[in-house]
Structures are given as C-alpha cells and as structure tokens.
Amino acid sequence: MSPRSVFLLSTALAFAAPAAFAQEAADPTATPEAAVAEAPGSPDAELRAEAAEWFQPIPRAAELPSGRPMTQPRIELGKTLFFDPRMSLSGVFSCQSCHNVGLGGTDMLETSVGHGWQQGPRNSPTMLNAVFNAAQFWDGRAEDMAEQAKGPVQAGVEMNNTPDNLIETLQSMPGYVELFQAAFPGEEQPITFDNFALAIEAFEATLITPNSAFDQWLMGIDGAMNEQEKRGLRAYMDAGCQSCHAGVNFGGQEYYPFGLIEAPDASVRPEGDVGRYQVTQTEDDQYVFRAAPLRNVAMTPPYFHSGVIWELEDAVRIMSSAQLGTELTDEQATDITAFLGTLTGEQPQIVHPILPVRGETTPRPQPISLPANAPAE
Amino acid sequence: MSPRSVFLLSTALAFAAPAAFAQEAADPTATPEAAVAEAPGSPDAELRAEAAEWFQPIPRAAELPSGRPMTQPRIELGKTLFFDPRMSLSGVFSCQSCHNVGLGGTDMLETSVGHGWQQGPRNSPTMLNAVFNAAQFWDGRAEDMAEQAKGPVQAGVEMNNTPDNLIETLQSMPGYVELFQAAFPGEEQPITFDNFALAIEAFEATLITPNSAFDQWLMGIDGAMNEQEKRGLRAYMDAGCQSCHAGVNFGGQEYYPFGLIEAPDASVRPEGDVGRYQVTQTEDDQYVFRAAPLRNVAMTPPYFHSGVIWELEDAVRIMSSAQLGTELTDEQATDITAFLGTLTGEQPQIVHPILPVRGETTPRPQPISLPANAPAE
C-alpha cells in the first residue's frame, strides 16, 4: 500500500472512530476492552460489551509480531517481488496469481492452478490480515509470513522454482540490485533467499482491511450493522463459533480437528488430506487444521481447505454441525451469514509495480513447450 | 489510469516540455512540425528537424480514433474487466496475464501460456500505446482495440471462454451490473459482448507512455539524449529503419514482408506461420506482418512474432539485414540499440481494481482437474 493510501485509510478510520480508539488501535498490546468506546446508553451496549470480550477491530496499521522492520524500501521491494511472474520457473505465476489483491487475497478457485497446469491439493488462503495469524498455511507449518513466502516459490505444483535460480534471476537485474540495496542497507550481499522472504513479509503486513462494518459497530457506531446482522452476531456467539473464530482476525490462532463433533462428508474433508498430522506425525493431529480467519470471508468463496463449498451459508451450516454439533435454524444460518458479511473491510489500494527490466544474463523462463495449434495473437 | 495519475503525468509533461508544445500535444490533428519547439540556435536543430519529419511525441492523453467516448465509468469498468481472471473459462487468466502493466504490456515469454498450459504461436504484443496503431494483432486482423479484445477471451489456447459464458458470468455479479449501467447509461441491457470490448478498449486507450527521453529531446531539450543515443538516431534514419517504424508509435501502421530483402533464419521466422496471408489469402501477403511499434521496446524482450530473440541488439541486426539488406557496423548496431532505449516512456500507474464479488449463479471456474500430488498450501 502506498503511504498515501495508508494515510487515506487512517484518515477515514480516524473520522469514523471515536478519538479514544483512534489512538489505541495502533497499539497491539491494547486490551480489547480498552479498544472499544464506552457507550453505556446505547441499545447495543450489552451485545457490544460481550463482543468486545472476544473480538478486536483491525488496527489502522500493523507491525510484524517479530518486530522486524517495515521500512518503505522493504515494502516497495516486497510489492515488486509479489507481483513479478519471473519468480516462477515458467515466468507465468507470481504470488499475486493465487493471492489476488483484487479478489480478497485469494484466486476463487477450488484449489490453485500452478506449474504445468497442475492443481494444488488445498484452497489458496488469503494473505490479507495474515499478519494477525499465529502461523501460516492451513496446517500452520510456517511460523510466520517470511517462512511462508519461501514455500510456493519452490513447490513443484505452484511456482516450481529453486532458490538458486531465483537468486540468479534477481542478481541479473540492475533494478532488483538497487531495490535490495535500498531495502537491506549496509548488507554486503543483500540479495538472499531470506531477504526475498523478509521483503514479501513486510509488504504483506501492509495488506490489512480495517474499517469493516463490524469494526465500526464494535467501536461504537450502532448504525454500522443492521438488525439482521446484529441478530447474526448474537447467534454466532450463542452457537459458540467464537471459541475458535475470535480475536482480531476471527480465527488464525489455534488448531482444531475438522469434524470435532461429527466428521464432514468426504467430499468436504477428503480422506487423503490429514492436515496437521502431516506436520507433527501426532495421532491427535489427524484432520487438524488451523481455524480459518473469517475477515472478508464473504468475498472469498469457495470455502474450506478442500474449496468445494461455494456458498457461505452452506459453510456456516457445515461448521455448525461438524464442530459444534448444532443444527442451526434457517433464520440463524441466514443471520450468521449476514453477520459474516460485516467482516468485509476496506480492501488495499495497490498501485501495480513497474517491474525491473531483465538483464543479459537473466535466466529465461522455462514453461513446458507444447505444439502451437490454435489461433495466433 | 486514475484521473489523478493522468493529472500527474500531464503535469510532469507540461513541466518538462516547452509551453508551446504542452498546448499542441493534446491535439491529434497537429502536424509533427507544429508539435516540435523551434530552437534554431540548438546544435541539435538539424537532426531534430529531420526527426520531426518522421516522428511525433506521445501526447499527454489519447482519444480513440473512432471517436467513441472514453468516460471515466467506462474506463473503470474496462480496468476491472482487464484484471479479472474470471473472464477466462478456467478462472486463471486475465488480459493482464499476458499484457502485464508492470512488464511493458507483455508477458516476457517467447509465446504466451494459456488454457491447459498450451503455448500460443506468437509473442504477446503490448497494449501500451496500441491506441496509436492502425490495426491490432501481428497480422492486423482486428481493426481496433475493441475488436482485438474479443479475440483472446475466446481463443482455445488463451482464455478459452465463450461470449455466452462470459455474459452469464458478468450478469450474475451485482458489482458488474452496476459498473456496466454506469459505463453505458440508458441502455436497456448494457451487459453485452460488444460493450465488454468497448470498455476494455477505453481502458487500454489510457495506457500510453509519454515523456520518454526521445520525446523530451524531440520537444526541444537537447540534454534529454546523450551523444551515443543521438548517433543512434542518426544511424537509424541513415539505415532507413523509419520507412517502416515511424509516427507516434514508431511502427504499427503498415504491413511488410518479414524478409523483404533476405529471409531470416527459420528459427526466427518459422515456416508454418505465414502471417497476414492467413487473413487475406493473398499470395503477396506470405510472411507479411505489421511493422512492430517500437515504443518501450527495450523493456519488452523477447522480440519478433516468434519471440526467439532475447537481445535487442540482435533484433536490430536481424532487421537490418532482413529488411534493408544492410550489414550494420558494431558501433551502428550498439548506437541504434542505445537510441531505442530512449523510447521508454513513463509507465502507467494503475491502482489494481477490487473485483466484484461473485453471485450465487456465477458460473464456476472450469480448470482441468488433475490429481493432487504435491505439497499443500
């Protein structure tokens, strides 16, 4: 996000929010209670007080939990890398291909299409607000966004590149040499795989979506949610959804078996994907996944790690029976779905980067050659 | 491009250019002579006067030659469509995939990769400054950008969609219904394949790259090109390159046989692609192609319709022998290559659009399903 966009978002939020909150929001150590405006006379005061025990609004800007620096040159470099298809062996796919800033950070496919038109085994999770997650990937196998960024670029089914080829590519372009020098000043050899990941992490940490209707309501604006959405919030908390989907990001913090009470249909939870068990080899982790963060969830079908459920209300029903053993009434399911729609925040306004020009020694893209057999460009 | 970006570019150009030109530039009927500042005392006056007989600077803003309106809602809709991968059957490819605004409007592949990982037969041409071309595609088979926009979306090797599925997709999303209504006010059914193409055309006509070093020099700033680049311009005109590559876009106007004097190597001009002959079935059109526009050419390797030449200087040598029967000296080839680098203009600053949320009846993407056999996301 450009500094100007950040400024505009900040201004918009400061305008919408009570002044007390506007100062608290940037402080990640602030307690939820402190973040919510006191409005004891409001008809929503009771519901809001209960909600504030579970949820926090998205702040105007985020810091990396590691404390690693988010300098503007590092963010700019990260944005450039994120949008550059030459980070893949084929030259076809960039991070943006599967984590589209225009599609809520997803690709809206059941599972992503990668190198050689292979389809990956799991639905592409969003990087929007991922800075608020305790760990990354559906099974939490990457402890932060920097570690995550090293995955898809090497995965044979995704970008199919190697760190060596990636570094050679970056070093061959004077534009990238300058960007890395500016982002990692004083380092003798700034172009490294680690720094590649750190820059992407810094950029991704700017991709947050503040000022959703729910956040406005949580900060004291009664009219930011309508009656149905408030009923939905009530039903969400009565059913117990927030025991897994809470916090700033409505999830992304803990691991739970998918099918805690009742195993979902095998089409929704394919037998072959045992989730976190693949990471820990611990029997208790069979079919265990990270509770998906629900911010912007109405924008990002299809749902679940399998990506086979296209309607949010269907996903709500499945979660309710599989995780909570609850059969929701039609009204409850509809109301909760309406409530989840209030979690859609302001989407990042990203100016598409102009990518560095290739150099004479830049490795050429290596898509698979197939015979030309169709209309010409 | 946002109104603000247009404004900034205009401001930048007005600042760099003599005031007399700043007023002329927007007038497409202005003669080249009128567009160039008079500077009779300049050491470059003679070279500039000769260049002005052949070349015109890119104006600050372009109009469609057809006179069709370029309203802001139409441009916004066009931008949204341009970046939306759901315009392809698979949900994987958008216009932006092969005409990347960050890569000079190309994909930097020899030939593009499309649906099912097929490779197309020709190198992806840029849409930057395409509004200045007399016709579109390598063989000029589309008379304007609107007609062009209907091609890739239907090509089996590219986006592999059908107009019917496209229209159904657009009609199913309330966000698109609104965008089309705003872009085509008063039309009873604004979502049509024709209007889809007209909106993309309007957006693409904003994708121009003014204020290159050459344009600044042409407008009277001696120091905008260095001595080598000026020698390169001299050599370019002495060799006769401008007989095909002239005008605002340094090409894009006429058709010529590739191999006018001497047929290039079959690796550069594959036998199976007979160019414009496929369009006209006229013997004279064997291996005839549109003279490629050379604006931003240093940014957009690889070269030629076959995309097999990766170094600009190699392309210069091949063209010189194939089209002009001239063997350039090493210095001439290097100087001309340096001169071509001055044709790189200001690249469009595009805020990535936030794409409409799908509706309940939106057709689902249809990539080919392959077995999942790789690391999970």
TrEMBL record, chains A, B:
Q: Which SUPFAM superfamilies match?
A: Cytochrome c
Cellular-component GO terms for this entry: periplasmic space
Q: Where in the cell is it found?
A: Periplasm
Q: Where does heme c 2 bind?
A: C241, C244, H245, M319
Would you indicate the residue range of the signal peptide? Answer: 1-22
Per its UniProt entry, which superkingdom is the organism in? Bacteria
PTM statement from Swiss-Prot or TrEMBL: Binds 2 heme groups per subunit.
Provide the GO MF annotations for this entry.
cytochrome-c peroxidase activity; electron transfer activity; heme binding; metal ion binding
What Gene3D superfamilies does its record include? Cytochrome c-like domain
Q: Which UniProt keywords apply?
A: Electron transport, Heme, Iron, Metal-binding, Oxidoreductase, Periplasm, Peroxidase, Signal, Transport
Binding positions (heme c 1): C95, C98, H99, H115
- Could you confirm whether the keyword Glycoprotein appears in this record? no
Q: How is the cofactor bound?
A: Binds 2 heme groups.
Span list, region Disordered: 358-377
The cofactor required is: heme
Q: Where is the Cytochrome c domain?
A: 73-204, 227-344
Record has Electron transport as a keyword: yes
Pfam families given in the database record: CCP_MauG
| InterPro entries reported in the protein's UniProt record | Cyt_c-like_dom, Cyt_c-like_dom_sf, Cytochrome_c_Peroxidase/MauG, Di-haem_cyt_c_peroxidsae, MauG/Cytc_peroxidase
Q: What is this protein called?
A: Cytochrome c peroxidase
- Which species is listed as the source? Paracoccus solventivorans
